[in-house]
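Dataset card, provenance and construction

Sequences and ligand SMILES were collected as paired inputs. For each pair, a complete structure of the chain with the small molecule in place was predicted and serialized as structure tokens. The example below shows a pair involving pyridoxal-5'-phosphate. Curators did not alter the output after generation; any descriptive sentences attached to a record were derived from the structure itself.
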Amino acid sequence: MTSDKKPAPIYVTQPYLPPLQEFLPYLEEIWENKFLTNCGPFHAQLERALADYLGVPHISLFANGTLALITALQSLRITGEVITTPYSFVATAHSLLWNGIRPVFVDIDPHTFNLDPDQIEAAITPHTTAIMPVHCYGQPCNVERIEEIASNYGLKVIYDAAHAFGVRHHGESVLQHGDISVLSFHATKVFNTFEGGAIICQDAKMKRHIDHLKNFGFVDEVTVVAPGINGKMNEVSAAFGLLQLKGIDGALARRARIDQRYRAGLQDVAGIRCPAPAASTQPNHAYFPILVGPDYPHSRDALYQRLREAGIHARRYFFPLISDFPMYRGMPSAARARLPVASAVSSQVICLPIFPDLQDAQVDSIVELIQRP
Ligand SMILES: Cc1ncc(COP(=O)(O)O)c(C=O)c1O
């Protein structure tokens, strides 16, 4: 008897979950000490463990990456205009609006899909106070050029590093660059704490300031030094992060093998481009973007639809551009004519499923669907 049961859908990502049994001792400890939040023991342990693992000086955990971005801007007292990319998740620009800052969109580089440093200077005005680039898909920005421009014009740099957990640039953590980098530990990310995020900064004084800001501005029981927010990570998330960290190297290695398998399968498909990381990058394979060009026999959306009909839920990250959303599209820097590369990439991109539990046979079936005429 044949079964007409459809195979389970495959999503663009699936969180890496260690065996439940391994999490229970952490929960028992929380039940025992009754420390649920407010920077408890697991929070402290995870901050130390992540600083060691990532090779960064200071890290402050957050309830999510968006609150971390909003707080990062507050901590540096950023105002006026900030130069940023239209090719990202909306939270990048939304964090500016939440601070009353005007985003100024600048086009991206066609190879890295990151802010094009050659176009930053022309967008600087007397109101510009900072640059907020994104290491899109975990691909490092041109950090050297951005640092040079920032230092010449006296601007701060806040990297949205939501995709860049564990990425190294010339052998060092890419998170060491800029005044601040912000990570997301959302369930869809390479390293997750269900919801979560972090700010990486370069000195202890700044970390103290950020720690006050994420706890309503409290310094002690009776002293509040700033209109802070509640951005704290809870103990269950922090404990999960500690457990997740134990398996992270295996998870990253599996992602690398999936990446290779896709690349090998798609290398000869006319019209499909698989952007590759630079030789100076140790990537985290957080995403597997492909560009569907005019030489491919079908449009990007037709391929997206074909995959969907086969139960493959790939995603068109990042389409639409942030600058196309209603709260941004009236801004002069949001005009499509000023963002030709971002517009073209956004109309061609599909991110294919990639996560540690994705099986080789599933990768092969996705490749076969793309190869099919
Ligand atoms: C580039 C980028 N920035 C910011 C965020 C926001 O992070 P979170 O979902 O943890 O708030 C995300 C993802 O969710 C992201 O992809």
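Derived descriptions for this record:
The mean pLDDT is 97.
The two ends are 31 Å apart (CA to CA).
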